[in-house]
Structures are given as C-alpha cells and as structure tokens.
Amino acid sequence: MNKVKLLAIAPYEGLAEILRSISMKRDDVMLTIEVGDLSEGVQLAKKHADENFDAIISRGGTAELLRAAVEIPVIEISISVYDVLRAIKMAELYDARFAVVGFSTITERAKLLSDLLQYKLDIITFESEEDVEPILRRLKEHQYDLVVSDRIGSTVAEEIGLNSILISSGNESAASSFNRAIQLVQSLRPLHKEKEIFKQISTSHFDNFLIYNENGKLWFSHITALDYHDTIFNTVNDYLEKLQTFPSQKFEIIVDHFLFTITNDFYFHNDEQFTLIKITQKDAPLIQEDVFSIYNLDSADQTIYDDDYSSANFIGMVRKQIEEYSRTHLPILIIGESGTGKEKAASIIYKKGPFNNNPLYTIDCATINEQQWNSLLSHYNSPLYNVQTTIYFKEIIALDPKQFNKLFEFFSQSNLAQRNRLIFSATLNDTLNNDEIIHSLKYKLSCLQLFLPALRERISDLPSILALYINKLNTSMGKQIIGFEQEALEFMKEFTWENNLDQLHRVLRELVLLAEGSYISKDLVKKILSQETRTSMVNPPKVSSIPLNKTLDEINYYIIQAVLEEEGQNKESTAKRLGISRSTLWRKINSAPS
C-alpha cells in the first residue's frame, strides 16, 4: 500500500497529541507533526517544502494562511458542537462577563447550543480577519473581560488586553480530517514535469539556495549542508519582501561562531519572476560569548515567555498597573516573592511596550560570571550599546557591589536608560528595603516599582486564574477538563500557596493530568494538596547543629544559612565572610538541596 504522506501543522501541542494518537492507529498514512500557529505555522510548512508531502492538515486561521502560502492541498480540522460546548462550560468558571466570538463555523454552533440549551450567550461573528481587532476592542470598551474563540480571536484578544479561552478540537474532528485528506490526495496525485526539470537545472549551480515565486511562496529548496536550517529560513522570511524588490542585495547574520551571507538574484520563466536566494557560510570574524538570551516578539520560539504566568499577572489590579507602566519609557523595578511570575510580568511589559518591534534581552544577574559581566559592559556587540530595545536585568540584587557600581557608571556615561527600556527584578525578602542596589534603582535611577502580590493576597482572582490555566493545560496536554467541583474549588482557595504561582501551576498540572472526568473532584484536590510541603526552613540550624551525615552540597547549604543568620541576613557581609562572590552566594541559596 502506498501510504499518503501528510504534514500536520497543529496550532497548539494538545492537538498535536490527538493527531499523533490517531495516526498510530492507521496504516495508510505517514504523518509528520509540527506545532506552530498562524505565520509560525506557515514557516514550519515552508521548512518542509522540499520533502514532497501529499497534503497538510491544520486548523482555523493557520489553515487559511497555509492555503495562501503553499502549493499542496490543505485540509482543515473542523470544530464540532461539542468542542464549542466544552469551552463555554469552562468559561462559566471565570468570574466575569464573557462573549463567544469567531467566524461562522464557531458562532453558528454556539447559536445552536444557545437555542437548544436555552443559554443566554453573547455571540459575535467575524466576517473577515480585519473584523477581529475592532470587534474585540469594542467588547473591551463595554467591560467584557474574557472571550471564547478560536486561535485567531484568542491571539488578538491577549494582544489587546482581553483574557481568552481557546476552543480546542476533539478526537472526532481530527479523525475526520485524516479521511478527507486521504480521499483528496488519492484523487489528485498531480505530476509537475516542468517544475521537476527546473529543479534539476537549478541544483547544478549552488550548494545552498532557495527559490521563491513572485507571490512569495517557497517554490523550491536546495539546502544541503547547513546545520542552522531553521535559523536561515526564519531570516530569509524576515527579509523576503525586500529581497523580491531588486537583485544583487546582501545580508549577513552571525549564528554561534559562523557568518552567513545571503544574496539574491532574479530569473524569469514564462513571464513569471523567480527570486533565487543563495546562502554561504564562513567562520565569523568574532566569537561572541553567549551571556544573555534574546527574545523576539514574532519569534517561533515562544518557550522562554509562554503565557502561563502572563495570564495570571494580567488579572485584577496587577493588570491595570502593568498596562499603565507598559506605555512609558521609564525604567521599572519588579519586586515579588519567589514564584509570583516576575519574569512573565517583564515579558508583558515588553510585549505591550514602545519597543516591542525590537528584541528583548534578558541578563540573568544570578548566573553571569565576572568575565562575562566585563564583556557585557565593554563589547561592541553587547545589547547595552543598542538603541530602542528592552533590556531585562533578572535578579539584579544578585550582583556584588563592584559589579553594580560598574553598571551604574555605565548608565551615567551612556544614557542607557534614555536610549532603551530597562526592566529590573528582585525577589522580596526581609533585607530588600535596605539593599544598596535597590536604593540606587529607586532613588538614583527613579525606577517605577511594580509589586507582584503573593497568591494568598489575591485569592479572589484564583477562579479566573484557574480557568485560564486549565484552558492552557488542556491545549498542551490534550485534555478536556472544564473546571472544579465546588468543594474542590473551596479547597484550592483555602490553601496557603507558599510558593505562589509556581506551586499553583505545578499542582494544577498534576490535577489536570490525573482528573478522570470533566471536573476536578474534591477528593483528588484534597489528596494532591495533602502531599504539598506547607512549611519552609524559618530558623536555619546553628553551625554546631549541622548534620554531617549529608552530602557536601547539603552541608554547604546549612553552613550558608547559619552564616546568613549570624550576619542578620546581610548577603554582602555573608559573601565576604565565606570568601565567595555575591552572585555565587545567590546561586547556592537558590539551589537548595531537597
């Protein structure tokens, strides 16, 4: 049997799991799965353009974009009435006004449910992609806080400050798409002789090149020796529009220790323009140290700043403060207990800030060493020499005074805070108000302060946070949980949540994974919460009481805690007494043995 070769572009991980499970039960398909939404999904499809797939399976807006971008058939996974009902039931857990929005495939099913079940639902239909943002902005103006929608609606909603619950596809819809794809492929099987001849001629000239037609579709790929396949495709896509305007252009990028040169030329066939893009690889003239991470708003890699915590910090009063702070160019200091989502709050400020068209640079002050720190302050490729970017100094108080003084001197000499948006974070502790670094940021750099409350201080927000978390966990784990039994929800509200959002997210992952029905039961919640550690080491042991039957790492940790206590929790004097740097002390404190 000739198997049909299918490429699945799943907008979210949960759908990928469903498709993978279905394909394993069939012997008539060979399935390759990628996870990517909208334009990211298009780039993933283009990456596989030279692998001769018979068809692509995708969903919603991603499927529509794929139809315009690729030449092979695209089969759309439909949304069933049950899919819509499940999302609506989840939204009922959210304690605020919500609306069901989407294209007619969604809203027609929602209207049917409204009639059959006598629901009073606010339902609005998008006629085109141009309708999405204006309609959602009107809903926000009319005090709606949540929308139930497909991927496009959910994405735009979160961009403009609305929370969302994604309508995910179930097993039945996914299985139907396989059948339709196989039927279509078997009825077509087209042969493109002219295209194959063109490929054979083209492959004889260059080692690594791409050919695009005049509509911007990847027509052919011949990349044979590149280790950085995905990076090159993403870079070419960024510059493609310009590359198609005139020939003999040249772009260069550095990836790891290599310099990639991208040049273009035009060819014409039957009055159609083809853009030939050649890629050459050489050793870079400069080896850069990887002392920081770079995140681009439209990057395909969204793992660094996923939305799990962002949604929790975009509810209630914290949301309002973040929105106001995001509009300014002023530096911001984020303070909160461990696990309150400081890094995610920084990502929201970046995404909604004035420089979100440029990268976000994150510098982890708790892990950077002295050599890397000096390179950061002096190297001409350092992000500190950029203009109109966002720079996030994570755990700034982990720096020793000498390092921070160098940084503050750099601020003064280079006008860094005037050229860029600066964000700092610090974990709340008893000595934070007396810390010299915090004092300098507050009174010399005039940072705005964003305090992230502990979860125990915002229990009223918990049902809304849980609704958003469950929705995201459903899409990533392929589950179909709707919410909590009422008593189970009360147990969640009464718990202390000493480790805040970190603890909540970890516990909820267990609950969603273990839940057997549509609702998480009180017995399951009680069991999982009873396993949680509710106490922390408030009074570290004296040196004389340090147990010597532990590992070396554990003994070192006890010693550090004892010296900290004797030094009144002063980290600078503790580090000096132990003969280690402040950043090394910070790392050891935050890597406590279990």
From TrEMBL:
<dbReference type="InterPro" id="IPR058031">
    <property type="entry name" value="AAA_lid_NorR"/>
</dbReference>
<dbReference type="Pfam" id="PF25601">
    <property type="entry name" value="AAA_lid_14"/>
</dbReference>
<dbReference type="Pfam" id="PF00158">
    <property type="entry name" value="Sigma54_activat"/>
</dbReference>
<keyword id="KW-0067">ATP-binding</keyword>
<keyword id="KW-0804">Transcription</keyword>
<dbReference type="InterPro" id="IPR002197">
    <property type="entry name" value="HTH_Fis"/>
</dbReference>
<protein>
    <submittedName>
        <fullName>PrpR N-terminal domain-containing protein</fullName>
    </submittedName>
</protein>
<dbReference type="InterPro" id="IPR010524">
    <property type="entry name" value="Sig_transdc_resp-reg_PrpR_N"/>
</dbReference>
<dbReference type="InterPro" id="IPR009057">
    <property type="entry name" value="Homeodomain-like_sf"/>
</dbReference>
<keyword id="KW-0805">Transcription regulation</keyword>
<dbReference type="InterPro" id="IPR027417">
    <property type="entry name" value="P-loop_NTPase"/>
</dbReference>
<feature type="domain" description="Sigma-54 factor interaction">
    <location>
        <begin position="318"/>
        <end position="513"/>
    </location>
</feature>
<keyword id="KW-0547">Nucleotide-binding</keyword>
<dbReference type="Pfam" id="PF02954">
    <property type="entry name" value="HTH_8"/>
</dbReference>
<dbReference type="Pfam" id="PF06506">
    <property type="entry name" value="PrpR_N"/>
</dbReference>
<dbReference type="InterPro" id="IPR002078">
    <property type="entry name" value="Sigma_54_int"/>
</dbReference>
